[in-house]
Design brief:
Chain lengths: 345, 248
Amino acid sequence: MSLATALKSGDVTLLPGKRDEDWKWTDLRGLLRVLPAASPASDAALPLGPFGDLGEVEIALVNGRLRGDPAALILAAGQSRVLRLRFVSTAEGSHAAHISIELGEGAALTLLESYEGLADGYVADAGLEITLAKGARLERVVVAADAEGAVSVSSTVVILAPEARFAQTLLTDGARRQRIETRIAHPGALAEVRLDGAYLLAGKRHADLTTVVEHQGVDGTTSQLTKGVVRDQSRGVFQGRIVVEEGADRTDARMRHNALILSDKAEIDAKPELLIFADDVQCAHGNTIGALDEEALFYMRQRGLPETEARALLIEAFVGQVIERIDHEPARDLALAWAADRLRA
Amino acid sequence: MLHIENLRAEVDGKEILKGLSLDVPAGEVHAIMGPNGAGKSTLSYVLTGRQGYEVTGGTATLDGEDLLALDPNQRAAKGVFLSFQYPLEIPGVPALTFIRTAMNAQRKARGEAEITAPAFLKLAREHAAALKIDFEMLKRALNVGFSGGEKKRMEIFQMAMLAPRFLILDETDSGLDIDALKIVSEGVNAMRAPDRSMLVITHYQRLLDYIKPDKVHVLSAGRIVATGGPDLALELEREGYDKYARAA
C-alpha cells in the first residue's frame, strides 16, 4: 500500500488510507477518488529554489524526470560534496521519482533537498534510498515547499553502517495532504542519528512527519527533536517510533515533540512510541502540545514589545531550537529565513 | 507623577480594588504593604494592563496621561516598568536579544532612533558589572534555568537598561538571600532620581531596610487604609496587619 504502487498500477484501491494504522491520520484513499494522468514533461528552466545556488552540484527531478548527472549521488570513499536535490512540480497531474544515494567509507555529503510546487493540484511521490558505509556522514536539510493544493508523499529509507552519522532537519509548510516519512536501520556500533523536523502550517494545510528508527545493535545514539506550529484549520501529524531491538544494549535514544496550536480549529495528532526490547538502554520521550504562553506574552509586552512582535519572537524562538541544530551554516541561515517567512505570513 | 483616584478593579467578576487612591510625586519612593489578598499584585497588574484585570471605575494617570486607556506595551514606552514577583522564562530568546528588542520597540513607540549595537553592549556591560551579573549569562535564553535570585537580578538589570520613569517592584525581596537582596537594593537605589518614582510592594518590612521609602501605605481589602512615614513599616512589622484588617 503506497502512493508509488498506486501510481504505477493506476489502481486507486492501493492507496493507503484510514484503515492502515500508519496512515490513519493521512488518508489518501478517501481523498483521491481517481488518480490523475501523468504530468507532462517540461524542459523549462527552473527558478532558484529554497537553497538558491548553495553547493556544488544540482540534481533536479522535474515532474518526476531527472535533470543532471545521477553519478553525483554516489560518493566514493573519502569524497565530500554539497549537493542540491530538487523535486519540482511544474504541472498538474501525477508523477513519481526514485533516487538512490550512496556514501562510501568516510565520505561526507551535505544534501540540500527541496520540494517545490510551482503548479498546484499535482500528486507527487518521491522515494529515496540512502546508504552510508562505515564512518560516512550525511547531513540532510529538507525544505518542503509544496503547493497548497498538492498531494505529496516522500519516503526515505536510510541504511547505516557502523560509525556512520546521519543528521536530518526537515522543514515543511504542508500541502493539501503531505507525508514525509523517514525509516532508518540503525546498526548501533557508534553510529549516530539526529532526526529533526518542524512543521509550520496555516490555512487548511496538512503535514505528516513520520519516522521509524530501528536500533539493531549495541552502542547507538538517536536524538530526535520535532516542533510544530499550526494555525487556522491546519493539521499536523507526528508519528515517531524508535525500536530498540533485543541485544541493542547501551542504546541512547531521545525523542521530543513539542507543538503550538494557535487556533481553535487547528489540529495536531501525535504518536510518539518507544519500543524497547533491550535491558541496558537510556531512552526518553517527551511530547507537549499547547498554546502560546499568555503570561510570557504579557511579560514581553510589559517590557515594550507590541503583541504581534512578542508572538512572532516567541514562535520563531520555539522553531529556532530545531533549526539551530543544523550544522551547515549557510543552509541554517536559509532555513531560518524560510521559516521566518512562513511564520510571519 | 502617578495619580490614582478611587480605582476599582475586578478579576473573574470579583472586586479586588475597592476605591483605591494614591499619589506618588516625582522623585519619591513609596512602599505599599499589606496582608496577603489585600490587592497588592492586582494593583501592579492593573497599572501595567494585564488581561483579565478589569477596571470598573476610577482613574490612574502618569503625569496627567490616562494609563488605563493604553496597551501594556504603550505603557512600557511611557516609562512604566513592573519588576515581576515571578519573572517569566522566555525559551529560545537570549536575554540580550530580548532587552535590545524591547528597548528598540520602546524607542520606536516614542519616535526615537534605535540604539546602535556598540552603544547597547557598552550599556549592558556597565549594568551587568554593577549588578554582578556574569555577561555570559546574558547570552542565554532569558530566565530559562535561572535561580530565583538570578531572575530577580535580571529584572533589575532590565530595569537599569530600559531606564523607566515609574518603577513598580512587586515582592522583589521574595526568594532572595541577604547578599542578593543587598545587590538588588543597591541596583534599585542607584536608580533613584528627581524625575523618577517608585512603588515598592512588599509583605515584609525587611526590604525597606535597604530601599528607604519616603512614604508607607497600608493596603487592606482593596483600599489604602493608612499612610505614614518609614516608621509605619516598623510598626506593621511589630504589630501585624490585624488592626488594619479590622479597619477595612
